[in-house]
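Bench log, entry 3. Co-assembly request; chain sequences pasted below exactly as received.
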Amino acid sequence: MSETCALPVAVDAMGGDNAPGAIVQGAVDAAREGLPVVLVGSDAVVRDELAKHGALGSLPISVKHASEVVAMDDHPGQAMRRKKDNSIRVCFELVKREEACGMVSAGNSGAVMAGAIFVLGRLPAVERPAIISVLPALVGHPLLLDMGANVECKPIHLVQFALMGEVYARRVLGVARPRVAVLSNGEEVSKGTDLTRTVAAALRNASGIDFRGYCEGRDLLTGDFDVIVTDGFTGNVALKTMEGTARVVGELLKQALKSTPASAIGGLLAKSALGAMKKKIDWREIGGAPLVGVSGVGFITHGRSDALAIRNAVRRVRSAADAHATDEIGRAAEQGEALLAAVASEAETVNLEHERARTAPPEA
Amino acid sequence: MSETCALPVAVDAMGGDNAPGAIVQGAVDAAREGLPVVLVGSDAVVRDELAKHGALGSLPISVKHASEVVAMDDHPGQAMRRKKDNSIRVCFELVKREEACGMVSAGNSGAVMAGAIFVLGRLPAVERPAIISVLPALVGHPLLLDMGANVECKPIHLVQFALMGEVYARRVLGVARPRVAVLSNGEEVSKGTDLTRTVAAALRNASGIDFRGYCEGRDLLTGDFDVIVTDGFTGNVALKTMEGTARVVGELLKQALKSTPASAIGGLLAKSALGAMKKKIDWREIGGAPLVGVSGVGFITHGRSDALAIRNAVRRVRSAADAHATDEIGRAAEQGEALLAAVASEAETVNLEHERARTAPPEA
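Structure output for the full assembly:
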């Protein structure tokens, strides 16, 4: 397979708060950069939008008709079964038939995950695919998974998230030796829940990955860890807590800069530097959240995505597809069961020794 | 009992990274404001520290000897049993004997909780006392509990956290009608875990409290909710995620203001406004985390507490003691079991009706 895939990125033109206008705009912007895209949605609607952008002439952009749309409040599984020609599903069918190298949607995120599983399927060993949140850290882009697809998790899920995330960081983001950690309420091995302790014990035995044990909420954005695993409930709370905190601090900053005449002038002088800072933590620069554990490349972007977010998402889908990491992700996940079995058998040996010591006759 | 309690606040002089110097300094500062304090720790050590502050003459400050110290890495329960004359335990004994109106320690937080339970005891109906984190929101001071004492929780724990937190917000912080919510991964009732759904169902039936259902990580600092309950694992992750995010945004701000000559001048002009903003989100201004569900007033402050943090903590212990809310907190917690029983019996009725419908003979 060639290093760079010539297939277009499938873009769900109908998903998200700003569809179809902003989505089509973002796709056109990506095509202008030379990235081939196929817009998926109502042919008439998409062509109307495209017409607004004037002569597209030689741009690598095409349209694939899909007659139905998944609403934001549709039940994901039902939408996939009942609306068989919905734009999310059609995107995944293009990927499945190798007519697109990957897809992105700003629509119903549950439906995107459901569509990936229905159409592409899970990788053979993977119990639960996950959604990866790519974080804007001081240094690098740590991966936090799962960010919400799997609310209640078993040890095998988190162990596989770690193994899959490690491959993703290495192969797609180019991190030479990703540092992997389990999110917990403290650094000591005695901290955490039964779930986190079992997962950490299993990963400690994983050969070939750089497992660093527990990390804490305060480590998410430092860049000290590259892959951080947690259940989807905690991941969702952590992610929204970051968003909320950044927004509140930004709001306080805005208030502070308005509070006195001197600070207002200061704010004007610092405006472009503050703008650059804002860009650094802007979710639209991140380009969406990749799915991992399914047989192909799919990205979920924010429901509020605008053209900038979509163009960046197309770039990221492209890099992910060009990395051809799916097979290696699948092989990594296969190790999960054995790692957990080893922990269980260690625990049994320890118990057995305790039992022998307890029942042994006193030494003569 | 009088509205304002004349008893001193017991301050653990030996706990925390900056003990005893900064702790004694903070206690002296509080005493200078007219707040009576009793410093608990090695008599010689504390008196040496006090001597550095010159003539204390008429200040309402006294010393109570405690011969032992709990180390930061001591096992909390063992420390309480083996070091019977440790400064944390002696603080709680002063509270128990009504020689102090409450206590504060910057030491081993597990040991502070253990000491509270050993010496003061749990309130009769309370299954698990909790640690309340008082958050610096845009508006007001929302309470998040539990912030880490109870890592794995059952429904009764979270229901009682909500009921107790509601009384605390009303009686101690003076919030007229506290808005109570359960932290979850989405607003819809279908979201969350078995734990959060059961807790939300129970609280929905609670009369006399303003229960608002689920809130999300992004709502923690807006001030839209006054009491937010979660298990100690999630609470700890959320709290440290807030701290870490605020620190990273602050770091980015500092970098931005250094990035160009214009922004550097801007930063200088805005300096005092930015300082006021920093103060607003400074944990040292919060004054520590109250324990709730034990028979008396105890506060845990940050291990890195300095004199400012300690002085503020003494003020907060004082307000909490003056509110005389402990009995009402205990009565509120008593309703927990009944609220959960009602949910269980509702669920049974629904199941029974389903079963009847399923097994009923077809209508003629």
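Residues 232-258 of chain A form the longest helix (27 residues). The mean pLDDT of chain A is 90.
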